Amino acid sequence: MEYFGISNKDPVNDPFIKDFNKFPFILEKDLLNTVIIEEKEMVLDNTNYHNCSVPILYEYRNNAALKVIWNGIKNGDIVTNRGAKRSLAADKRNQKIERKVVNVNGDEKSIYLVTRGQKKKLSVAKFNSGFQAEKNVFKRSLNDYTIYGYAKTYNRDLQCFEHYTSEIDGFIKMDGNDNYAPVEFKSMRSFRGATVNSFERSWNIDAVIQCRLAGINNVIIGYRNDNEMKLQRFYLDEFESNVKNSVQCSLLRMNRNMKELVRNKKVLDVHYPRGDKR
Questions:
Q1: What is the top-level taxon of the source organism (predicted)?
Q2: Of 157, 162, 155, which Cα lies nearest the Cα of 57?
Q3: Cα 235–chain centre separation
Q4: Dihedral sign, CA of 27, 20, 234, 221?
Q5: pTM for this prediction
Q6: Structural contact between residues 22 and 145, judged by C-beta atoms closer than 8 angstroms
Q7: Burial of 103 by CB count in 10 Å (0-12 exposed, 13-18 middle, 19+ buried)?
Q8: Which of 68, 110, 150, 256 is least buried, going by the fewest C-beta atoms within 10 A?
Q9: What is the pLDDT of residues 229-261, one digit of tens each?
Q10: Can you tell me the distance from the alpha carbon of 78 to that of 56, in angstroms, rounded to the nearest whole number?
């Protein structure tokens, strides 16, 4: 998995960051601590923070930081993001697919761009709550970047690679070394108990799929009580143990819907060649 940070305020002119020391992280020894949430600087809305349904790889395809990734993308490959892939576990009606020709170092590559047809919006209250919690849980030397992980998987049915990014909440810095493990962070208003059985089954399934796609094995749950937050660390296997079959079915459905989406698009492209009226 490759990680990089994109500026929320000026992503075009501000360079990407790839230094783990500048990524949001929490020390492993602090995972059982109680965190004080200091809501001193409220975020009024989320308009200044990057929240786009267009895959990052495509949106910033001309950025030098993504040059190596684009050099490895071939004709017929799929470019998407984790949100669109997760949505395919439910159905393909809200997905949009387009054939795009991208110029990479003077060479044209024809790819399939899969996006979520409708951008997911957060309420101001939920955005502020999550932002304030993350800001106090993770040590950040830079608050103005969103971190992404890049992955590619081979689709045997379509005989091409799927290239996608996942937004990463932060990392756990392991005690005594410089190893960093990506982590999914969830903030909750009430204490659900010390085991995964305390969470709703559907919540477990969604969390496992989300983490599986991003290559994340650690989950931090933050239980809020006024301005205090108690942290609890889980491993993904704990969430997956009781929902493994449901997760597998969701992943199979995701792959099947992706296959149908791309194959239907290829059929349309054959019937309506490029340049014809549609």
A1: Eukaryota
A2: 162
A3: 18
A4: positive
A5: 0.86
A6: yes
A7: exposed
A8: 68
A9: 889 899 999 988 889 999 999 999 999 999 999
A10: 13
Helix, strand, or coil (residue 77)? coil
CB atoms within 10 A of CB 189: 8
Q: Count how many Cα atoms sit within 13 Å of the Cα of residue 268 in the half-sphere of its side chain.
A: 12
Please name the residue that has the structure tokens 């170092």: 105
3-state secondary structure of 215: coil
In a domain, 277, yes or no: no
- Look at residue 265 and tell me if it is in a domain: yes
Q: Which distant-in-sequence residues (6+ apart) come within 8 Å of 106 by Cβ?
A: none
> What average pLDDT does the segment 213-227 reach?
90
Question: Residue 218 is which amino acid?
Answer: N
Tokens standing for 92?
């393909």
| Nearest C-alpha neighbor of 214 from the set 96, 85, 90, 91 | 85
Asked whether residue 242 is assigned to any structural domain, the reply reads: yes
Asked if residue 58 has pLDDT above 90, the reply is: yes
DSSP helix/strand/coil, 239: helix
Rounded Cα gap, residues 164 and 153, in angstroms: 9
Contact 111/70 with Cβ under 8 angstroms? no
Q: How many domains does the chain have?
A: 1
Is residue 185 within 8 A of residue 137, CB to CB? The reply is yes
CA 170/CA 220 separation, integer angstroms: 10
Residue 276 in domain: no
CA distance 153 to 156: 9
**What's the confidence (pLDDT) of residue 277?**
47
